[in-house]
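Structural prep section.
Before we set up the soaks we want a predicted structure of the protein with manganese (II) ion in place, mainly to decide which crystallisation condition to try first. Input record follows.
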Amino acid sequence: MKMTFRWYGKGDSIPLSYIKQIPNMSGVVTAVYDVPAGQVWPEEAIIELKALANQNGLEMEVIESVPVHEDIKLRRGKCDEYIANYAENIRRLAKHGVKCICYNFMPVFDWLRTNLHHMAEDGSFSLSYNHEEIMSLDPAALSLPGWDESYAPSELKALLDAYKGMTHETLFSNYCHFLEGVMPACVETGMNIAVHPDDPPWDIFGLPRIVSCKEDYERLFAAFPQNNNGITFCTGSLGAGRDNDLVQMAYDYAKRGKIHFAHIRNIAYEGDYGFCEVAHKTEAGSLPIYDIVKALVEGGFDGYVRPDHGRHIWGEEGKPGYGLYDRALGAAYLNGLFEAIEKK
Ligand SMILES: [Mn+2]
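Run finished without errors. Recording the tokens verbatim:
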């Protein structure tokens, strides 16, 4: 296991030197953030990011994310040009020591919450999701936390219209077209690509989602059995699906060498679909974090781990889910779990 920490590049308010001070921290998970989706990342930008990490004693072996352009998911417009650019990014990143790329294939929204500042009884803040609230929204006139600046209202409407009527089968076929285009670059360079599950793992606003459960993974692995084609096992995202058996999935996919990267965090269920993000420890929420880590270890998992979203505690402000303190506590807890289970 290699413990890592997400870092949003030079614009991140958390200094790399602080990240390095977290015990057992091997590297950062980051990206070139100022190049639009679909474009090739300048090599100088990759070199600069890596140099910054290395100067602080941290590796840069995981990229999250190289975003997939909506034209690829829709298989329209400049789809094939964007796929070729994606393959070029894989080659460039591999050349500079990157071993794993996390990405997702969610149409339009790559995560959804209804509240980014949910206050718990202890005064900490975290992200939460209320299903009834989502269902009551008009997708054409959305005002959702975290998304207000991502698209102009007219852009969002045009994009949602473009997906109208798209089935899961069509989206999966478009996904396969993408993988056909990038898999040769992965195999040639040894790059692992690790798809992040849908967050939350069900269709929203009529948009199909195809990386939500065991059946989805089996279909994906059957279509692309290469070892490079793997997953980011995100417990908080997959775990929101009440039917997902995370312990079984962790063991099975670790055993098959499919888990290249793990995001570990806990959520507390509210009703049938709702959830609130909580501290990492098992007892803090609804997910069996101890059993999941045990299953990963017993399955022979040897990939990258990062503590996922943390709460905002001790008065810390900043990017929702990505403060320093609670993610550092999460890393410390996960380090302890892995050490105890591995030594047993
Ligand atoms: Mn995640």
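Observations: The chain has a mean pLDDT of 94.
Flagged for discussion at group meeting.
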